[in-house]
Amino acid sequence: MLTTESLHHYWHTLTGPGGDLRLFMPQFVLCLTIVLILLLRTFSDHINAKPFAFIGTVIGLLFALWNWMSASISHEPVNHELFGGMLVHDMFSIYMTVFLLAFAMATVVLTMLTGMPDTEDSADFTTLLLGSVVGMTLMASANTILMIFLAVEMASIPSYAMAGFLKARRASSEAALKFVVFGGASAGVMLYGLSLLAGMYGTIHLPTLAHEMLYQMTVTEEAFNPTLLLALVCFVVGIGFKLSAFPFHFWCPDVFEGAPAEVAGFLSVASKAAAIALLARFSLTLVGTYHHAPFEPEVWQAAIHAVGNYLSPVLAVMGAVTCTFGNLAAFGQTNVKRLLAYSTIAHAGYMMLALATLTVVGAKAVLFYLIVYFFMNLGAFAVVAFVRNVSGSEDLDAFSGLIHRAPVVTVAMSVFLLSLMGLPPLAGFVGKFQIFAVLYETGWYSLLVIGGLNTVISLFYYVNLMRVMIMTDAPDQAPIISLPNAGFATILAAIVIYLGILWNAPEQWSQIASTSLTRPERAVTHMEAPAADLVVEASPDKTGN
Amino acid sequence: MLIPSLQIYLLVGAVLFTTGLLCMVTKRNAIGVLMGVELILTASNINFVAFSRYGKLGLDGQLVSLFVIVLAAGEAAIALAIAMNFYNNFETIDVDRASNLKG
After folding, report:
1. What is the distance between the alpha carbons of residues B92 and B78, in angstroms, rounded to a whole number?
2. Positive or negative torsion for Cα B59, A289, A92, A327
3. Which uninterrupted H or E stretch holds B75?
4. How close is the nearest chain B Cα to the Cα of A206, in Å?
5. ipTM of the complex
6. What is the pTM of this model?
7. CATH number of the domain that B73 lies in?
8. What are the extents of the domains in chain A?
9. Range of the domain at B21
10. pLDDT tens-digit readout, A118-163
């Protein structure tokens, strides 16, 4: 029965200290900003929405940082389930929320600098951008099958529209069509896999599902469960699409070439980060160890190992093929955005290699890599956008002799490219080193060799772009990249260099965030109790079938 | 006579899923491909509802399918808008004609 007291109590659990809504503030602020921008739009078509979006992301980021601070000084490990188990609030989800909001803020700043969507379209663009970011943060904190699907769709649907944002450009509309068709298809396949998982184990709550899966594996002692394999393959199809992993990568170069460089940069970092976070959460929850094991630890470990045997080879093979393919195909590209798209595919492959180990250290290496990737890839796409603004082209030719026209930007771009390559004094090296170290420690020597060879292959196309920028003659007309734009690129380049030397702090953050991925005490929760009641109501015998 | 059971519903779901996949692979018309996507979403919905009726899933399954129906509508709206825009630029919605971007 709902009484005033119970409503009051419920309201208090939502809004009181440590309440669900308070922990959800970062996303909530973004939602409010979206509503505000849409309201402002109804008054006038000529309102520039970018400052509002910037303020919104900054406030959201501050709330997320506040969550991180208060969680890191608390004595107990932070591990709440929000909204009846739909979302999980732990160090990992806070880390990803901070990351994604910071990236959204940087993207808004970049669009302010490049003026890509003009003032009239800025309201539409920022609404789509912020909506997509909310979806991505939910992907990183999803705790049920329903939330996984909702979050993936919420992140994808605005990005379809953003890919086709330049409505009159043929390439842009083609990119959007390809994106929406393949995206919708892969999301559907993923949902089918998730429906099989939910049905087999009778719950949509991920930790309960993982527990149930291990339990059933132990009881039935099945060597091989084809339905489970089908379900996991369907899930990997959906995530593989978001990650642009090998057989599902083909949309990525087309979309990046057709979409504006700012959108391509956003998709390249934020969308991949959210997808890799979801994959890490999902796979590490499935192989997480739980205290309430009803069996001997050895038997339980064998079941965990069996689940790992379904996931790990798929991720390893996919990651290896993805980074090899990306690096090989990038060679000989004439459009710089297309080249960076293949580079994005390759980097997604490296991150999948680390996740294939299915260990917390692997997740830690990925989380660290994401920070590095944030700055170097955003920087590369920003420079592409700046060059497009002054020369109207994103081809390799537009970069020829850039050093004579814009020496500072050229140096910054070289830093980004060398870092993407993974050369020592730069941040990219530290990121790659951590991934390779994990592969070495966990004994995946074959993946280590593949990763090393790939780094060598990637040298060619990155160096080729640098050669074009530095060693060729400039065309006659020499437009100059404006000072704020050059400043933006310089700041990002400085951060890339700084992280290459002093990487202790981000390494610690990623360490803290990754350890919260396997939390034993979350196995059996309150989600089970209501579910059991509902089964009685819905059971077939009661209705006389 | 068929007695309704979990297997029958799952079979319907699997047939719809396969039909949707075939539809997506063979259709060259963008609208046809999108219809294939809708079939796949419906297949998952049937699975969820069947599991909630005959399995242990409870009302969670029905909840998921409700959300999926709403999301499918949203996705269709965006997809049709993009298809319209594509038509304005190319005067066709044949996905094979979308071949400006290659390499």
Report:
1. 18
2. negative
3. helix B59-90
4. 13
5. 0.94
6. 0.90
7. 1.10.287.3510
8. 23-539
9. 8-91
10. 888 888 899 999 999 999 999 999 989 999 999 999 999 999 999 9
